[in-house]
Amino acid sequence: MIVYVCLIVLSVGITLGIFLQNALLLSWYNWFWMLAAGVLVFLGLTAVYFLLLYLISLTVDKSRPVSKRQPFYRFLLNETVWLILHLGRVKIRVSGLEKLEGVPRFLLAANHRSNFDPFIAIAVCPKAELAYICKPEILNIPITGRIVHKCFFLPIDRQNNRAAMDTIRHAAELLDAGTVSIGVYPEGTRSKTGELLPFRNGAFQIAKRGNAPIVITRTTGTENIAKNFARRTTCVTFEILDVLPAEAAAGMSTCEIGNHARQLILGGAE
User: DSSP per residue over 214-227, as a string?
Assistant: First the structure.
């Protein structure tokens, strides 16, 4: 949000400066051109921001593991997510946020409809410092791949069971230490039809091993963001359905947790 506001203020300031200097505000006709110039200045400054972000990302060595929190990169991630969602004209409707009071770190489990799903959760819960279990390709995305690496996003190799378990253990350690919250999509991949896919309940081991509560959420509308991006407003709903305490999760099997989460998510989709 800070970057977005700064870009707007700078755009207005630069545009007004140009027009005032040339005494062009005397004609109502010139207000149209001032608005057009303001938009161009804003887009230009936005491009400069992403260029700077790219240059910063080049300093990140993805081969080096991250050992401690990186507030600067978390700030960049949160601000970039906020900027992208506003450029895309995404409006988020949130319900159940009060359930997170007093829950600083948690495992977030949600349905998965779009590549924009993590953006929504990060925007709604910035203080949770969400780090996602993700496909290895995510870390290869230009600019953002290196930034999310610094924010403890963990790639998982589902073709290698031993490597996958190492990722689960690492995520549980981060959660237990209170370093970050962990986000997972139990379906394992995006649902192209919108229907909830079968769960891979092993993801819930992270909360059990990390002695952390499980926040169950449902996201709808994100599948429309890409096709509507910047052209029209996309309304997205983010619902916090339940917070399963760590003590309750410890006494349940991963299958029981998965069934509980699945029933809650399906409850509003019927």
Answer: EEEEEEESGGGHHH
